[in-house]
Amino acid sequence: MRVGIEIEDGLARVTLRRGEAGNAIDLEMARGLLDAARACATESVRAVLLTGEGKSFCVGGDLGEFSRLSGEALEKHLIAVTGALHEALRTFAAGDAPVVAAVQGAVAGAGIGLAASADVTLAADNASFTTAYTGIGYSPDAGVSWFLPRLVGPKRALDLLLTNRRSKAAEAEAIGLVSRVVAPDRLTAEAVRTAETLCGGPTAAFGATRRLVATGLTSDLGTHLDREAHAIAAAAASAAGREGVAAFLGKRAPDFTRAAPST
């Protein structure tokens, strides 16, 4: 099985399991990611942790698989791969549960899309990033041409996309491609700690916040302010909102899991 998923106490752990191939994305893995995303699309999942086995998080598409096809057959195959992969990204983005990604080693092509799509991305200080697409005569997929300009700005995004230069973890953090850099031996523990912390938070409010940030980049101010007003009103009236205010006034830590479905 190319992609593993384990759900326990509201935390879904999604693992790319082609470590021997750098977790290169073939059709089977793309479909596995879609299955995993759909499994996470439930109220019982409060946070998602995305990781890759082996030395590298994800080196992008499986060029060996692609090279065995040509012409119309190759085009149909790439449509199938990107179709499943992109639907997985849409499904993760549509949910309330925040996504934490932990990346190490080589992160290239679609691997950058997976890393960039996460709400919080932790990188080991041995990670390196390259878009790689135009270096083989391809154009981007996995949302890379959508996420990069929003994270690092259009000018820097084009530099990365056109030159395919390799960025080390420190630069990736400095330009906003990743949230923070940690030592390789702390990556897993820090990613789990972050995901578990989010798992105990107000999931619906997280979902509203994710959507506000995503839509705010393309909305006019008036429209966005209206969305904020409706979102905060709904959050305040929710069980989680009432618990949060009660905890603040009572000078105690909130227990947002009280308002969560049983897992």
TrEMBL record:
State the Gene3D superfamilies in the record. Answer: 2-enoyl-CoA Hydratase, Chain A, domain 1, Lyase 2-enoyl-coa Hydratase, Chain A, domain 2
Q: One Pfam family, short name please? A: ECH_1
The organism's superkingdom is given as: Bacteria
CDD domains in the cross-refs: crotonase-like (cd06558)
Per UniProt, what is one GO molecular function of this protein?
isomerase activity
So what family is this one in? Belongs to the enoyl-CoA hydratase/isomerase family.
Protein name (database record): Enoyl-CoA hydratase/isomerase
